[in-house]
């Protein structure tokens, strides 16, 4: 059976809320996930938003309640705006949330300076710490689910709550390359540690690409590759921290956040042009020699 919520709605279509009477105009598709489609929308009063359409009311209600639980001025999740139903065949169950700015982490990672990478990873872990306090784990930690807004001091936002799972429950939605169980370093159960391992795996595989045949490898082969990949990390502070997280030595987000903050940044080149300094030094020396010669000559006259 075809999931009707996965059939994309054309831009320009108006979705009318059955219970609120509000209207939202579809501006375009932002993304398609395992449990729904997200559209950029404008409400009838001009308020921009992102509409998540799901197949069932239960998933909509779960994600909406989560956004309500974690909302706040500096929440990493989009602020909830409205939950409703409609008579549109491909948008029967939906909610609307804040439309956040920024680009997916995998699109900006390689261009980030060391200081920005450190800030972004700290913000991700701080956001997870807030989520864990509510009794949930993010679970589907991947670069595509994380937006980075360089115009807002590298603010980090989580844009897909579909994989969020109560702590202690089996993980329902995950991405293999950031799934600790796939690499054989933890079990596939929602926990703070599962999320932190996901962050470490995500950061590592953004820098060092896994082999093309990783999905056909045994767990032993994957773990061997993982150990080699960590040794390719240039900065010893990050290398040591990745090893601790993947060994299970760091199990809560606040501890990891503090550890990230304590990692020293590499010294950046000061940009000094030594050839220019040498040239100006030589010129100054020549000028001084000339002045001394003229002074001596004038006294002799």
UniProtKB/TrEMBL annotation:
Coiled coil: none annotated. The keyword Transferase applies. The keyword Ribonucleoprotein does not apply. GO terms for molecular function: ATP binding; protein kinase activity. Residues 24-265 form the Protein kinase domain. Keywords: Kinase, Transferase. This is Serine/threonine-protein kinase. It comes from Alicyclobacillus sacchari.
